[in-house]
From TrEMBL:
Residues 155-218 form the Signal transduction histidine kinase subgroup 3 dimerisation and phosphoacceptor domain. One of its GO terms (cellular component) is membrane. This is histidine kinase. One of its GO terms (molecular function) is protein dimerization activity. The keyword GTP-binding does not apply. It catalyses: ATP + protein L-histidine = ADP + protein N-phospho-L-histidine. It is an enzyme of class 2 (transferase). Its EC number is 2.7.13.3. It comes from Macrococcus hajekii.
Length: 339
């Protein structure tokens, strides 16, 4: 969407290039779209556009950039011009405007024209109009994504209820029936067969309970630590949970952290050949440690399970970083949280 809007803006005006920054609450910017950047600014994977501070991003973060403005000196363009003077295509200055919808801000729209230092009020008005449309579109996308997440959560909850009320109950009944039949059987082979059916049914019940937990986290209303303890009990793991200081997460962070720990515990149960783990929770990081057989990670393609890739994606979704250290003496997974 943004790439198309940027392309139409540049091609339908006297601007020759444009780029969009998303800026988070900490003032960290991300280049999310660009069109016809000079080669100097594209060098080294847009290094000058992605690294370091600049005036417009700083003013935006400070709440002092509220309308379309001329930027007298852009440190990014200046650095690129000094390093690659023959590749700037005459770009020395740019105009900027915040992307926002109501009171909600998303980032900056920047445009430039060769050999031009200031932009007319008419050009700045055009920039304001386009920025308003892009900001409104971003807001709609954000709302749509939230609606999608709500719908997905509701569907997961429905599936969890259906599995619990139907399949889980049938498996439990099968287990009880096999146990009763085995107790009454006189033939040894029949008793062994019923015992196998009972054991298999119990394993299936345990797997079903774990699946229901994955669809719908149970116990989070009682706190993250308690939910982790309950899930470990479902898996048959013995864990120790340490909580350091006063820890408070918002709903998205808490659910995401639980999902990451959940996947780590799944991996311990399936691969580590141990039933014990230690989990440390603080406002800065989450640590999951076990003394199982471990594994060696030399590249993303050699991760032992697809689940670890999902854990990394979940960590990134809340601005965190996942670090994994594993050897024959065990595995440590650290979720470093932002802030």
């Amino acid at each position: 969407m943004m790439a198309g809007a940027l392309k139409r803006l540049v091609e339908g005006s006297e601007f020759s290039t444009g780029w969009i920054f998303f800026i988070d609450a900490e003032g960290q910017h991300q280049l999310v779209s660009d069109y016809h950047l000079p080669q100097a600014l594209e060098r080294n994977s847009c290094q000058y556009m992605t690294e370091g501070p600049c005036w417009c991003v700083s003013r935006y973060h400070q709440g002092k950039l509220t309308k379309a403005s001329n930027i007298i000196t852009c440190s990014r363009i200046v650095k690129a011009n000094r390093k690659f003077p023959a590749e700037t295509e005459g770009i020395t200055h740019h105009a900027t405007v915040p992307l926002q919808s109501g009171l909600e801000k998303f980032g900056l729209l920047n445009v430039a024209t060769p050999d031009k230092e200031t932009y007319s009020p008419e050009e700045l008005d055009l920039l304001e109009s386009v920025a308003f449309q892009i900001g409104s579109a971003i807001k709609r996308i954000v709302l749509t994504e939230k609606e999608r997440e709500i719908a997905l959560t509701n569907e997961r909850n429905r599936l969890a209820r259906d599995l619990h009320d139907s399949v889980n109950q049938m498996l439990f009944s099968l287990k009880l029936t096999a146990h009763a039949a085995g107790a009454q059987a006189e033939d040894e082979r029949a008793r062994i067969a019923f015992s196998i059916i009972e054991e298999t049914s119990q394993n299936a019940v345990n797997e079903m309970r774990a699946l229901i937990w994955q669809l719908k986290p149970i116990g989070l209303e009682e706190g993250l630590a308690q939910a982790i303890r309950q899930y470990a009990q479902v898996l048959g793991l013995k864990i120790t949970v340490h909580v350091e200081g006063l820890v408070q997460f918002d709903n998205k962070e808490e659910t995401t952290i639980f999902r990451i720990v959940q996947e780590a515990l799944n991996n311990i149960r399936k691969h580590a050949e141990t039933e014990e783990a230690v989990i440390s929770i603080s406002s800065e990081r989450i640590m999951i440690e076990d003394r199982g057989k471990g594994f060696i990670v030399t590249s993303a393609t050699q991760l032992p399970t697809h689940g670890i890739g999902n854990m990394q994606q979940r960590a990134e979704s809340i601005g965190g970083k996942l670090k994994i250290a594993s050897s024959e003496e065990g595995t440590t997974i650290q979720l470093q949280l932002k802030g």
